Amino acid sequence: MLAARGITDPDFLAPSLKHLHDPSLLPGLDRAAARILLAIRTRQRIVIYADYDVDGVSAAAILWHMIRAIDPDAAVTTYLPHRLEEGYGLNSEAISKLCDSNDLIVSVDCGVTAVAPAQIARDRNIDLIITDHHTPPREESGLPLAFAVVHPLTPGHAPYPFADLCGAGVAFKVAWRLATLESEAERAKPELKRLLIELLALAAMGVIADVVPLRGENRIIARHGLEQIKRSSLVGVCALRDESGLGGEKVEAADIGFRLGPRLNAIGRLGHAREALELLTTADEARARAIAGALTGWNDERRATESAISAQAQSLAIERGMTAPDHRAIVLCDPSWHRGVVGICCSRLVGLFHRPTILLQQDGDLCHGSARSIDGFDLHAALGACSEHLVSFGGHAMAAGLKLRHDRLADFTMAFVSYSNSRLATSDLVKRSLIDAECDVAELDFDTAEAFGALAPFGRDNARPLVLLRNARIASAPRALGSTGKHIAMEVKHGARVLRVKGWNWSSSLAEAGIALRPGQAVDLLVSPEINNWNGRKTVEATLEDLRPADD
């Protein structure tokens, strides 16, 4: 299976922290770390300017904890822009105000294209350090004039050995270098080394929530960081973990994606993310639990808002012909939509219609929105090709944010759809499942399912193992699973060997396809095998990914 995925690294199954690259290899990092340490030692006022998503909040918390560990009395504060009022990234007004009360500004998870804000700091003689991972300018001359720019792909510098770090990953590297500089040795002091291990929990949240490839350093950070979440001593991580129903359990990548991450993101989408960052930095257990509970409330509100917008956008896309084979992108705008939620709704529509999707909220003369892509379509390049119609945009190949004037919306829509039509074939609009192996039910024994677990954590570029069960027989008809009736469970077999299969949200899928499964019927199934642990009893089960009658 590893060979079929093109994985030849012998260390893949045992990712070790020893395989993390020297942080000094990151362009600009040594200069940045030395300046931050000087500010700590001379009691200069430091502000960490972060993005408002999980990656940015985690990155800010990583740097904050390391600075406070080096000097508990360090004059360090944080600043997160308001998503709706200020938008993504460094903004000139905020930088100007921060220059009034700080000696050093350090960005995390943003800033690599912030030319105008950087010039303001420079004119005010305030050092600005930018740490980011988003798509940088093509030429070195396009970089902001900052004291240091820390980025894996800084133009004009030798590239870092791993290009796909997220914002929290870059911040972790900065924290690591601060620890060794403070220790004046190749290795950090024991107490700072222990903190670095602890901070892997925060870094893993950023890695998984930002959906960066789970290969290389990201895999190492995610694997060890998930272990740290389970046994963390950071009171905010513990409160968030327990509030999410994960106390004492094994924490997996999916738990970040569906439980922890959405809670941290929700408040920044609907309000201001400052409390999410406070949760990850506070040492007050009661305050941490209060914030974690509030985040659950925000997340419930976010889900209701998202559900309503997604349903409306789905109907509009169909009505306006944007789901037809000759219309290979979706662009929609509505003044009633909540700007903080449209990004998630984009992802929902991509899942339904499998084409690049942009959803915008009109606010006066401007439209603000988010975009999501499919594999093989570079969203950042597409927006760049249509930039004459945009006020601003930023992001990377799979996700981006953008702003444009409403009177340019029609022209932009036409240009973006035309670009998408020229780059995508009709066959690209169908989701593809890459099958790892074909097997029969008898081969999916406990040892095999346990071995598959060694491939975790699962995510982008490292999907759960997917196997084809060809010509299996339905041993028991599907029955409703859960209180809502949306899910199903059934048994399939080859010969006498039976496998229990669960299908999440499959009730409506079978009904829409007109498929009524009955005992004895032959089907081909794509399933992801796993070990189910219930009341201390372990069994091999599988999650249904796709299905068709065997004679189809």
Précis, in short:
By secondary structure, the protein is α/β, with parallel strands linked by helices. 40% of the residues lie in helices and 20% in strands.
What can you see in these coordinates?
The protein is of the alpha/beta class. It has three domains: 21-296, inorganic pyrophosphatase (n-terminal core), CATH 3.90.1640; 320-429, Diaminopimelate Epimerase, Chain A, domain 1 (Roll), CATH 3.10.310.30; 437-549, OB fold (Dihydrolipoamide Acetyltransferase, E2P), CATH 2.40.50. It has helices at residues 29-41, 54-70, 92-101, 115-123, 167-183, 190-209, 216-230, 235-243, 253-270, 274-281, 285-319, 342-353, 379-385, 409-423, 446-453, 506-513, and strands spanning 46-50, 76-79, 104-108, 127-131, 148-150, 330-333, 357-363, 366-372, 392-395, 399-405, 437-439, 467-481, 487-494, 497-503, 522-534, 537-549. Helix 12 (342-353) links the parallel strand 6 (330-333) and strand 7. Helix 2 (54-70) packs antiparallel against helix 6 (190-209) and helix 10 (274-281) packs antiparallel against helix 11 (285-319). It is globular, with a radius of gyration of 24 Å.
